[in-house]
Design a protein that fits this description.
- By secondary structure, this protein is of the alpha/beta class.
- It has a single domain, classed as Rossmann fold (3-Layer(aba) Sandwich), CATH 3.40.50.720.
- The chain is built from ten helices and 15 strands.
- It has helices at residues 13-24, 63-68, 85-95, 130-149, 168-174, 192-201, 222-233, 249-254, 264-270, 279-289; strands at 3-9, 28-35, 40-44, 47-55, 58-59, 72-75, 101-107, 118-119, 153-158, 160-162, 179-180, 189-191, 210-214, 240-241, 260-261.
- Strands 1, 2, 3, 4, 5, 6, 7, 9 and 13 form a nine-stranded mixed sheet that branches. A two-stranded parallel ribbon has the order 8-15. Strands 10-12 form a two-stranded parallel ribbon.
- The model has no long low-confidence stretch (mean pLDDT 95).
Amino acid sequence: MNNINIFCFGFGQVAKNFIYKLKTENFNINLSTTSRDETKHKQINNINYNSYQFKDENFDPNLIEKLKNSDHVLISIPPSNGIDLVVKNFSKIIEKSNTKWITYLSATSVYGDHNGEWVDEESKTNPTSFNGVDRLAAEKSWLSFSIKNKLPLQIFRLSGIYSNEKNILVKLKSGKANIIKKKNHFFSRIHVEDIANILFKSLSVFKSGEIYNISDDKPVSQEELTLYGVKILNLEKPKNIEIKDIESEMLKNFFEDSKKVSNKKMKKFFNYNLKFPTYIEGLNNIRNNII
């Protein structure tokens, strides 16, 4: 049985699914995580772990020893005002740790708007949203930190994540989905299981300093995705709304950018065939097995 001593900064759906994957592959998992809540002892999939409080610049000092002894570190917490809080607060500890694998989860928002054209890891990064600007700054701080200290780092730029719990089918069934029409608007997505599988692959296939787009094969418009959900659920088509009428600023920002995210580098390097190569396979699986 393989052993892994892993520290997760943030413990959302990606980190959790990665731990599930490790469990199915019969890893012996020594897990520590952070949360903005008070430190607690928890359990997931019969794995006991400590969730240490880390809020802004305050943290439970008991996490230091755990981090120092971790051989794998996964960072999924977002930056704050362009500053990566993990680098800011824990760089000295990570420098002295035993880590042989650091993965920073970024986002494809760093590319900004490319007028519906394809982007790859060599494309210009010109973020238009605050989130994209902050993510790009965080990427640069991690790359600089890893080069300076010769630490093993990879960066995953994640497309829009969907899962069994969070997806367009759930929104449609709850009546919270609308169709937003915008000409030449494309976005990419990725099923959380595929992210977990690629993270797992990277445990044995790893090259420091590299950036990978993590996305599926078929970028589409929000309208096309929603209409497919309507079709397989046999529901009435939801109403159309204008971009100017969207209440969420984050969602408005989403429609500012149009791009198709290439996954060629990811598939080639990790020799990985997507479990859900497009939204069609992903949504059909959710409908057949979950909803």
